[in-house]
Design brief:
The chain has 254 residues and is of the alpha+beta class. It has 6 helices and 15 strands. The protein has a 4-stranded antiparallel sheet. Strands 8-15-10-9 form a 4-stranded antiparallel sheet, covered by helices on one side. A 3-stranded mixed sheet has the order 1-12-13, with no helix packed on it. The radius of gyration is 21 Å and the shape is elongated.
Length: 254
């Protein structure tokens, strides 16, 4: 399923990605949890075994899905508050809910309560703070299809020029020098001030495939991947704060 390969954020944060998935690991977690996982879910984890998503469910804070294996977070091993002796509100029949993302205050779950452990679960959103739950879609396949990119209004994808050359052009337009890439980023990110609390960011589409933090710095992989795999001809990405949208095309000559 092409969609399953394109949901993952690039660069991937390695600490949240479990080891490459195999059939034995899937069988073991299904046996331990007592459920059959949706094939579309497993297929997504075959492309990347958990981690941050480049898309999200509209209006939801969820931006990950759990992978299978040892380490935090992992499917079945990262339990919601209401499965850890929580003395507050608990959703009905919590044993039938399997969290695939959450932060304690909320959880996105595969919901087996109606279909049974071998059926096709729906996807539910559990709001632990408000004490309410809602059904999002009838299947994980529908959940995957409903994920959307959240792009700022002034987002531009340029074809041809490199991010550094766009940054040089922007610096000339603004009468300034090209700033050093932002510290702590896993790929070159050039940030320009264009007014009071107004900013433009320039970055490449092709970046390190993954990264982790070590010794107070960022360590990136030698492999490269596209942040926007649906747009392979894109070479530079330009974003801005809302008040700069009207000037953006003028600034970058587009």
């Amino acid at each position: 399923m092409r969609r399953a390969a394109q949901i993952w954020r690039v660069p991937a944060f390695e600490d949240y990605v479990r080891d490459p998935l195999d059939g034995a690991a899937v069988a073991a977690v299904e046996a331990g949890l007592g459920v059959r996982l949706p094939e579309v879910y497993v297929d997504a984890l075959r492309h990347q075994n958990g981690g941050y998503l480049r898309m999200c469910w509209p209006g939801s804070p969820s931006d990950r899905i759990y992978g299978i294996g040892e380490g935090y977070p992992n499917l079945g091993g990262t339990a919601p508050w209401w499965k850890d002796g929580w003395d507050g509100w608990t959703p009905a029949d919590p044993a039938g809910l399997l969290a695939i993302d959450g932060d304690g205050h909320w959880d996105v779950c595969l919901d087996y309560r109606s279909c049974g452990p071998t059926g096709e679960p729906s996807v539910a959103f559990i709001d632990n703070e408000a004490g309410v739950e809602s059904q999002l879609v009838p299947s994980f396949a529908a959940y995957l299809e409903g994920l959307e990119l959240e792009l700022p209004e002034g987002h531009l994808r340029l074809r041809g020029p490199s991010a550094r050359s766009v940054a040089a052009q922007l610096a000339e337009q603004l009468g300034t020098t090209v700033p050093e890439p932002a510290r702590g980023s896993s790929f070159p990110l050039f940030k320009f001030g264009v007014g009071k609390k107004e900013w433009v960011w320039v970055s490449p589409n092709l970046v390190p495939a993954s990264f982790h933090y070590a010794d107070g710095g960022v360590v990136v992989s030698s492999r490269r991947a596209l942040r926007f795999p649906d747009d392979p001809l894109c070479t530079a990405v330009v974003e801005c704060t809302p008040a700069t949208v009207n000037r953006l095309h003028e600034l970058v000559g587009q």
